Structures are given as structure tokens and as C-alpha cells.
Amino acid sequence: MAKSNEPKNFTTVNKLCCCLSLKTGMTIVGWIKFVLSALAVAVGFAQIIAYLIDESLDYLNINVPDLGIITFSVLIIVFNALNAYVFYIFIQGIKLEIDSKILPYLILNGVYIFFVLFATVAAMNVYMLIGLLIYIYIYICAFNLYSIFSSISTEYNVV
User: What stretches pass through the bilayer (predicted)?
Assistant: First the structure.
């Protein structure tokens, strides 16, 4: 009996948005997320630079509440740098069809979906709900791609 590359789970998605292959569509999603994360890192640096220039005009009289702006900007930089790295690994995993490089993306987005779910319930916002549903759909597509790649890798690793 021949093995098929179809995953044996509840998520059976063959195309992204009914028109792109799963591999191509998730590569596009990965690149978009990578670029947006890199831009967010640049915005974080710009916030810190703008704050320091503004404060230098006041002879560096830094108040304690103002340190929150720097701390928030540093957190934005660190979080989005981590995101950009994970998205880069995700893109490489899709190109090389390596399931272990897709796993960090699944973990990061799983945590993100968990927090957005609570924020959506708390805010009762329709736009957040639509965004959450889109993220869940993309997560299901990425998980399906992970399942396909893991079934391919286990086929070749059989001794």
C-alpha cells in the first residue's frame, strides 16, 4: 500500500485563499510578516532616537515616567526582532521543506492567538474577531504544511 502525502489530521487545507498553493501562499505570508516585523524594529529604534533627541534639548532631565517610553520601545524592538527571526526560519523551512523550522512559527503564533483570543473576548470588538479568525486560518494552513513536511521527512528517515 502506497503512502500518501496527505496529513492524517483534522486540518485538510490544500490551498491558501482558494487560489495559491499552500507552500507559495505561506511563503508570501511569511515574507509579509518578516517585513512588518523588521519595520516594527525600525520604528522602535526611531522612537528611542526621537525621545533622546527631544530629551537632549531639555538637558537630559529624564523623569521616571518617561523611562516607560524607552522600556516600551525596547520591548517592541526585542519582540519584533524575535518575530522577524522566527519568520525568517519559517520561510527557510518552507523553501527546504523542513518541518522543524516551521515549528517555532507554530509555537509563536499559537501563543499570539491565545492572547488575542482573550483580548477579543475582553474588548468585544468585531474587527479583532475578524483578525483572530484570519490568524486562526493562517495557523491551520501553517499546521497543515507542517504536517505534510513531517510526513515527508518520516518517509525518508525510515530505516
Answer: 31-53, 68-90, 102-120, 126-146
Beta carbons of 140 and 13 less than 8 angstroms apart: yes
- What are the phi and psi torsion angles at 71 (to 5°)? -60, -45
Contact 152, 97 (CB under 8 A): yes
Helix residue ranges, H only, the chain: 22-56, 67-96, 103-123, 126-156
| pLDDT score, position 121 | 82
The Cα-based distances of 157 to 104, 145, 150 in angstroms read: 22, 18, 10
How far apart, in whole angstroms, are the C-alpha atoms of residue 18 and residue 119?
29
**Residues 142 and 94 sit within 8 Å (Cβ to Cβ):** no
Q: CA-based angle 47:52:58, to the nearest 5?
A: 135
Q: Which residue carries 495557523 as its cell? A: 139
| Total-model pTM | 0.76
Amino acid at 94: I
How confident is the prediction for the chain on average, in pLDDT? 81
Look up residue 24 and give its three cell numbers. Answer: 507559495
